[in-house]
Design brief:
single chain, 265 residues, alpha/beta, Rossmann fold, 9 helices, 23% strand, globular, binds S-adenosylmethionine
């Protein structure tokens, strides 16, 4: 079953990822008058930044609660932007309706990458571009998700390998092959973002209400030994984030990510 990103509190993570939306939006200037679609907008980070630069913005996200949060943020900031519930597999935008399609760590979670690419290329105008970000394996996001995924598979059994093959959204060769089918070329840039905390414990506590953590906790709580399982998951997560700590005096992890730009031709 697909994760509801409206569970728990995505907001603190959204806040920590804001610098990446700032980079992606700044590198997409000029934006005045451009039609921008922010696919998987979450709390509206990239959408609001683009709207502040004069773009005509539609933020799309399957999580109804986050769409409401994004709408509220737009009102608070006095910014005009539309936010609609929708999914990468069926983007609620007309053919060629986006001069710029952004997706900051979002379309990478779509269960069917090819369907998402078909849709992103459909809504992108003939001279428009797609710009998305993806984590590169090795950082804290993947340490946490990988550890939790492995633990949940141990407890509940590995999910059936139904559905399409996942796409390596950070990998230029894989992306080139996936987008070529739709007549799009791809360029990938690597960047890094440091995440810091006073300690590994504090770092982990910041993501305790993340939708993935809340979803895992709810599933574990359905088991008679749920409390012990939850404690074991937390022990393993702490060990995983400690292992990648780069600052012995506190906590720091550099997360590599890819900025992917795709356009026709
Ligand atoms: C890590 S959050 C990123 C949110 C936002 N772009 C940001 O930078 O804070 C991932 C987002 O992708 C959205 N998402 C997950 N599956 C999706 C799908 N199939 N289509 C579109 N968005 C999806 C989630 O609802 C969530 O808001």
């Amino acid at each position: 079953m697909e994760l509801d990103w409206g569970l728990g509190q995505y907001e603190p993570t959204g806040q920590s990822l804001l610098p990446i939306s700032e980079i992606v939006v700044a590198m997409s200037e000029p934006l005045a008058g451009k039609r921008v679609v922010d696919l998987g907008t979450g709390t509206g980070n990239a959408a609001l930044l683009a709207a502040e630069r004069g773009a005509v913005v539609t933020g799309v996200d399957p999580a109804a609660r986050l769409v409401e949060v994004a709408r509220k943020r737009a009102v608070e900031r006095g910014v005009q932007a539309d936010f609609v519930v929708g999914d990468a597999a069926s983007i609620p935008v007309a053919d060629g309706g986006a001069d710029l399609l952004l997706s900051v760590f979002a379309v990478i979670f779509a269960p069917d990458a090819d369907a998402a690419i078909a849709e992103m290329t459909r809504v992108t105008a003939p001279d428009g571009l797609i710009r998305l970000t993806s984590w590169v394996p090795g950082g804290s996001m993947m340490a946490i998700n990988g550890t939790a995924g492995k633990f949940m598979a141990e407890v509940f059994g590995a999910p059936k390998p139904a559905g399409p093959e996942p796409l390596a959204w950070h990998d230029e060769d894989a992306l080139r092959a996936a987008f070529a089918k739709y007549g799009f070329g791809v360029k990938v840039e690597r960047r890094s973002m440091d995440l810091t905390a006073k300690s590994a414990e504090e770092f982990l506590a910041k993501s305790a209400q993340h939708p993935m953590a809340v979803s895992a906790a709810q599933a574990l709580a359905s088991r008679p030994d749920g409390a012990e399982l939850q404690a074991e998951l937390e022990r393993r997560l702490l060990a995983a984030v400690q292992e990648i700590n780069e600052d012995p005096a506190a906590y720091k992890v550099s997360n590599q990510y890819a900025i992917v730009t795709a356009r026709r031709g």
